[in-house]
Amino acid sequence: MADMPSGKNATLTPKQETFTQGLFKGQSQREAYKEAFDTSRMNDNTIDVKACQLANTDKIRVRLAELQDELKERNMVTVEKVLNELSHIAFDDISNYLSYKTVKTVQGTDDEGEPIIGYKTVVDLKDSETIDTRSIAEVSIGPNGTFKFKQYCKDNALVQLGKYLGMFTEKVEHSGSLGVKIVDDIE
Questions:
Q1: pTM, whole model, 2 decimals?
Q2: Whose C-alpha in 46, 59, 104, 143 is 20 to 30 A from the C-alpha of 182?
Q3: Residue 32 and residue 22: Cα distance in Å, rounded?
Q4: Which H or E run includes 79?
Q5: pLDDT tens, per residue, the chain with 187 residues
Q6: What is the Rg, in whole angstroms, of the alpha carbon atoms belonging to the chain?
Q7: How many angstroms separate the Cα of 3 from the Cα of each of 12, 27, 49, 51, 59?
Q8: Whole-angstrom distance, CA of residue 53 vs CA of residue 65
Q9: Contact (Cβ atoms closer than 8 angstroms) between residue 53 and residue 127
Q10: Are 63 and 7 in contact (CB under 8 A)?
Q11: How far apart are CA 87 and CA 164, in angstroms?
Q12: Helices (H) and strands (E) in the chain, counts
């Protein structure tokens, strides 16, 4: 697309800008066209054709790309940053935050003075000042002393990464019938 004009050289009319802003907000081409232009005397097929033609002009595509770049810059969100965060969640390990073990304890003595042995789980947390806490969703201690540690969902992050990488295909089932029109081209 080296021959595309830059947005600064390609001035849009106010109606074209309204159309482009509508596309940028996620409206369909038809919706954006109806918002920008008087379509009261047009049927939907005509609107669709005109909207498609307008959307495919270089100056509209350049302006739309500018708006997307402005949004990325303003939010500093990039595909790489999103993938990095998802990868961090997907491949993180609980041992980066804590260690746990079961230890033998003496819980008293029986009637004969013999020790009563029990087992207790010990959790050692790493200092939050020294670890990357991005994957931690919750750390809490309940009123009864119950400790809770929760990481963000690894499964969800893996699925999102897999979808982005094209590892999964969506299957759609259809029931019912589709109308088919057979056209005879013989003259």
A1: 0.47
A2: 46
A3: 5
A4: helix 79-91
A5: 444 444 444 689 999 999 999 999 999 999 999 999 999 999 999 999 999 999 999 999 999 999 988 887 777 767 888 899 999 999 999 999 999 999 999 988 889 989 999 999 888 989 988 999 989 999 899 899 888 889 999 999 999 998 888 888 777 777 877 777 777 766 5
A6: 30
A7: 18, 27, 24, 22, 11
A8: 17
A9: no
A10: yes
A11: 12
A12: 6, 4
CB atoms within 10 A of CB 63: 22
Structure tokens at 126: 């790493």
Q: What residue type is assigned to position 81 of the chain?
A: K
Tokens 């697309």: give the residue: 1
In 3D space, the residue among 149, 171, 169, 151 whose CA is nearest the CA of residue 159 turns out to be 169
- 3-state DSSP of 127-148: CCCCCCCCCEEEEEECCCCCEE
54 in Cβ contact with 60 (< 8 Å): yes
